Fold this sequence. Notes:
Residues 1-31, 97-121, 181-323 are annotated as: Disordered. Keywords: Nucleus, Ribosome biogenesis. This is Ribosome biogenesis protein NOP53. By secondary structure, the protein is mostly helical. The protein contains ten helices and no strands. Among the domains are: 1-84, no CATH class; 179-200 and 362-388 and 396-414, no CATH class; 204-263; 301-358. The protein is 40% helix and 0% strand.
Amino acid sequence: MPVLRSATAGSGEAPKQFNQPSRKGKKAWRKNVDVTEVEEGLREVNDEIIRGGVIREKASEDLFTIDTTGDSKIPQKFPKHVKKGLKADEIINKRSAVPAVSMRKRPSDKTTDGVVPAKRQRTDWVSHKDLARLKKVADGHHENTVAVRDATFDLWDAPAPVTQDPTDFLPEKVEAKVPKSMKLKPLSLLANGKQAPAVPKPTGGYSYNPSFPEYESRLAEESTKALEAEQKRLEAEAAEAAKLEAAAKSAAEADAAEERANMSEWEEDSEWEGFQSGVEDERPSAKQPKRKTQAQRNRIKRRKEEEQLAQHKANMKARRAQEQRIKEIAAEVAEKEKEKALELAKAAEQDSDGDSEIGEEKLRRRQLGKYKLPEKDLELVLPDELQESLRLLKPEGNLLKDRYRSLLLRGKVESRRHIPFKKQAKTKVTEKWTHKDFVL
Length: 440
């Protein structure tokens, strides 16, 4: 009876399951898995190690060589081709001893174009007319006499004639003019006139995990600003409401007065029904102004002269007092200049200490150009939004907006309004009237 054994028995191979399309379920988690491919790969690696090393780990210089001399057996195998050479080399090396035919046309003596040449006059003899003129000249009879005059200029000192360049027909290139403002420093919008830092340094109150005193002071400051802004808004609304109420009240009063006037025109008796007598007689006569006498005019003139003289004396007295106090005034001016220099130095020190810190900048004007400076974003985290973990932090602010506002504040660029759509040309749609010209 034959012995039953598996196909892999005695071969040293691990038992395997070939019919195993999926291993996703728990029932398909079997112990024996096909590892034939892995074992073949390990066997190949061991064979490469025995031969001298793994091929993938070797460098290219150890695996390949560059042939610079060529095969020495090729001339023996193909002697005919080696001696004869390539056809391309033969074509390139061909050089004819006969020069190439020139493309320029050369007229020939034997061939003509069929046109009879014009008869040329003889130049080796003198005509009768020229002979008669020469005889008159020899006798001293000249047709035209040339008057000899002294030269009024030196020929050798004459300027050389200016020759125009034949290629000078193009207009000269005009360079763009640089505006004067390019050489000036940018105009800062700060009230003190100094340049603001490009990247201001934030204080401790801007931190995501700030200290309590700094955060409390900044929160109180921002709260005060918000309350003031809200108070101003409410006052503006109240003023606007009061203005509207007053306008409505005045309009109602005007309407009522107009109604009363209309009623009085119909109810009251008109004065045109009867004439009032004696009204013109009771009017007070207006006092007619009288002309001034010469004595009055002289009195007024003397008074004006006295006033002018008194004013002149007062001015001269004040001037003499100032002349006496010149030294005192000079000392006062020097003292004021010294105090001003100390204040400037102190302000410079303060600016150097905290100029790079973010603060509430005081602007001398709100705009540089057509549009106003955009408001600074409020970068403040409320107490209930403070987080203890860095993973829960929510970033605040926008670096692009901060950079753009810094450029505007330093006067580098002007404010611009965002235009989302380009302005299109206005078109008018009309209906052609050619359909009215249709005739049967």
